[in-house]
Automatic annotation (TrEMBL):
Catalyzed reactions per annotation: Mo-molybdopterin + GTP + H(+) = Mo-molybdopterin guanine dinucleotide + diphosphate
E.C. no: 2.7.7.77
Keyword match Nucleotidyltransferase: yes
Organism of origin: Microvirga lupini
Molecular function terms from GO: GTP binding; metal ion binding; molybdenum cofactor guanylyltransferase activity
Residues noted as binding Mg(2+) in the record, renumbered to the chain: 105
InterPro entries noted in UniProt: MobA-like_NTP_Trfase, Molybde_CF_guanTrfase, Nucleotide-diphossugar_trans
NCBIfam families attached to this UniProt entry: molyb_mobA
Keywords: Cytoplasm, GTP-binding, Magnesium, Metal-binding, Molybdenum cofactor biosynthesis, Nucleotide-binding, Nucleotidyltransferase, Transferase
Residue ranges occupied by any MobA-like NTP transferase domain in the UniProt entry: 8-166
Name used for this protein in its record: Molybdenum cofactor guanylyltransferase
Cellular component GO terms held in the UniProt record: cytoplasm
Amino acid sequence: MCLPPTLGVILAGGLSRRMDGNDKALLSLAGRPLMDHVTGRLAPQCEGVILNANGDPSRFGRTSFPVIPDSIPDHPGPLAGILAALEWSAAHQPDIGWIVSVPADTPFIPMNLVLRLHRACSENRKLIACAASGSQVHFAVGLWPVSLRHDLRQALADQGMRSIRDWIGRHGHAEASWPVEPVDPFFNINTPEDFRHAKALVRQESVE
């Protein structure tokens, strides 16, 4: 399958309340910032990568990719990060028609994520595809057409919508599913306990 040009966005705009406000994207996992693990898996699948994060971008140091804030105020959630990426792509990469979003706290995303999301869209004739593992749909891990940016802005800014599930319910979506064994590829780090588990998984991978 020949993939359409796709821009990757790492969603790091959350407030990390359950991690005592620490910036999850910068947590050190196996000697590297968490976002480096995500980027290392996502970048080879995309035409480019951007980071959605609010606040002072200098805390990310000399990143090799743009850091873009939400374009809707007051931290309305991952939908705002998706919107920011869609609008950035339209303004700066007009030849790219799709973005794929991945939270910054998912260090084990599949290396065939973009391929399988595009395939799910094509086979099911949908504009949107989301990842799933086991019986859980991961709505923030998705493929989004840049053409829906105006619809999403209206939903967020004018209608106060905050749920990804609610928004894609208007358009329908396809799903691409992965097994959860031996490791759920969409394991995400929300708590200190999750972070300890991620460290154990990385050690296990290095041994195997």
